[in-house]
Amino acid sequence: MHNALSIAKKEINAYFSSPMGYLIGAVFLILTGLFFAQYLLATQEASMRGFFSPASFFLLLISPVITMRLIAEEQKMGTLELLLTSPVTDLQVVIGKFLAGLAMIAGMLVLTLYYFVLLMWVGSPDLGPVFTGYLGLILLGSAILSVGLLASSFTSNQIVSAVVALGILLMFWLLGNLGTFLNAIPWAKDILQYLSLASHYSDLVNGVLDTRDIIYYVSFTVTALFLTVRSLESRRWR
Amino acid sequence: MIEVEHLSKYYGNFMAVDDINFKVEKGEILGFLGPNGAGKTTTMRMLTGYMPPTSGTARIAGYDIFFDSLKARREIGYLPESNPLYTDMTVRSLLEFFGELRGLDKTFLRRRINEVIERMRIEEYVETLIGKLSKGYRQRVGVAQAILHEPAVLILDEPTIGIDPIQIVETRQLIKELGKEHTIILSTHILPEVSMVCQRVVIINDGRIVAADRPENLSIGVSGQDKIRLTIRGPMREVAAAIRDLNGVETVEYESTGTDGPARFTVSARINRDVREELAKLIVNRSWGLLEMQPIGLSLEEVFVKLTTKEEVEVGA
Questions:
Q1: 3-class secondary-structure state, position B202
Q2: Which of A95, A209, A196, A200 is nearest to A145 (CA)?
Q3: What is the pLDDT of residue A36?
């Protein structure tokens, strides 16, 4: 764990030693802020829904940019050789890099708490959906990051890594919509619905805390991280 | 300190390293010599745990590189080929990062960083981004990183590539000094480097070890004969004929250095047949003037070319 934290710390510093970290944060805040304000003015309702609904999709678009460099850049620069010949396990490397991404997302979400403060000032929002909404974003964020990390381990080209991640993510995001074409085969529809990244999130935004949703995101994340470790190991075996 | 046993590596069907064996004793500097693509980097990557061997194994300070990989890696300081470093980090933060990964405790690490930056003379650049450093300084950071955790073994892959001649000389000096505290494997394709720095050489070609010995012994071993250079004042042809008649002498080549001047002779004798005394006696008896007599081995270049091109010659013949 100690090693993973050292790696996470190094990666977080790397985000802020270039404009990348600031840029990602700014884009996310501007976009969600616009939607939040628009929803609040239109409905006059003290609810975070105007933030939570679009935020998930923005997260999906932005996260591949957060994760694309994590392993791909090290392969390109050759520093992966130094990292992997240090006394650290592949798992520690993957966990460390994942935690760095998660810290970035958590940091962005902390900044959006300011929307909540605004709501408290103008009305009295329901606390339950706010809590489950943020929980949903963190869980969804973990799943998205783990896919991005996996994509980053496949290649030494950051652009390729981002595009692959986005492709996989959009597919999982839209699986639920695909299900609507399958009304004739209910079990297939249910499976697609269950696999969809989006459908589990809507429960949480609605304030429903269902363990199935939590289990889905956690197992999704663990699977993708496991595959990332294997991908890193396979590079050793090649 | 380093024991390599039957180490092999295949990339698919391509054999990069084929059943190599060698040992490096504590405190030794071993030169790992071979043309580009001979399998040097692959061997080093296996030793450092970056990629596992297809078969065979090696032990670093007693730890198996496969089964005790983490412990073995802790004993190794590694300077990979082309010296990759995080260009977006400062020298200090890079050293702190690798120090933490190698499990150094905080106070020791802080002291140790000061020691290595002083030793590598990079004090003024500790807060500089590595991306802004010149190649020579990056090289020093690379070495600083490698010696940071006081490893028993240093593995340096082509450490003098891409830096200027003065820095090359400095680097060689440094490697010699480091040899007092660490066991070192140094890969290179630059021959003088080996004779200058290393106590022992392993020459690798096409994934196989073709020779392993002290640099000076290699010269004789490969040529299969001893050569002696002589400068003699006397009737050139007569001298040459007389030398050729000596027991043990195989060939005599000669050239004059001008009319009536002394002539130069190169005498090849059978291996382990020292003909120098007999030569001297002969020359003195005939009252010619012996101006110079010097045994010459093949230069390391000649040895190297001979060893690494042997097979092609045989195929051609």
A1: strand
A2: A95
A3: 92
Interacting residues of A79 by C-beta distance below 8 A, sequence separation 6+: B84, B85, B86
Give me the half-sphere count of Cα atoms (radius 13 Å) on the Cβ side of residue B230: 26
State pTM to two decimals.
0.83
> Is the CB of residue B137 less than 8 Å away from at least one CB of chain A?
no
| Topology of domain B224-298, CATH | Alpha-Beta Plaits (3.30.70)
* AA letter at B10: Y
Number of H helices, E strands in chain A: 10, 0
Task: Look at A6 and B82 and tell me if their CB atoms are within 8 Å.
Answer: no
Nearest to B144 by CA among B83, B65, B82, B61: B83
**Could you give the percent of chain B with pLDDT greater than 90?**
42
Q: Nearest residue of B to residue A81 by CA position? A: B50
Do residues B74 and B102 make contact, with C-beta atoms less than 8 angstroms apart? yes
Dig out the tokens for A200 from the structure. 């589990």
**DSSP helix/strand/coil, B277:** helix
User: Element (H or E) spanning B19, and its range?
Assistant: strand B14-24
Asked if A84 has any chain B CB less than 8 Å from its own CB, the reply is yes
The residue of B14, B86, B105, B130 whose CB has the most chain A CBs within 10 angstroms, and thus the best one to mutate to test that interface, is B86
What whole-number distance in Å separates Cα of residue A157 and Cα of residue B265? Answer: 62
Q: Give the Å distances, CA to CA, from B88 to A16, B80, B135.
A: 10, 19, 15
Beta-carbon separation of B100 and A79 below 8 A: no
Whole-angstrom distance, CA of residue A23 vs CA of residue A65: 11
The domain B2-220: what is its CATH number? 3.40.50.300
Domain ranges of chain B: 2-220, 224-298
Give me the interface pTM, i.e. the ipTM.
0.89
Packing angle between helix B91-101 and helix B106-119, nearest 10 degrees? 130
Which residues, 6+ apart, have CB-to-CB distance to A204 below 8 Å?
A132, A133, A135, A136, A139, A213
Q: What is the pLDDT of residues A68-113, one digit of tens each?
A: 999 999 999 999 999 999 999 999 999 999 999 999 999 999 999 9
Distance from CA of B2 to the nearest CA of A (A): 17
Find the residue in B nearest to A8 (Cα).
B97
Q: Which backbone phi and psi does B104 adopt, to 5 degrees? A: -80, 140
pLDDT digits (tens, 9 = 90+) for B154-197: 999 988 887 888 888 888 899 999 999 999 999 987 777 887 88
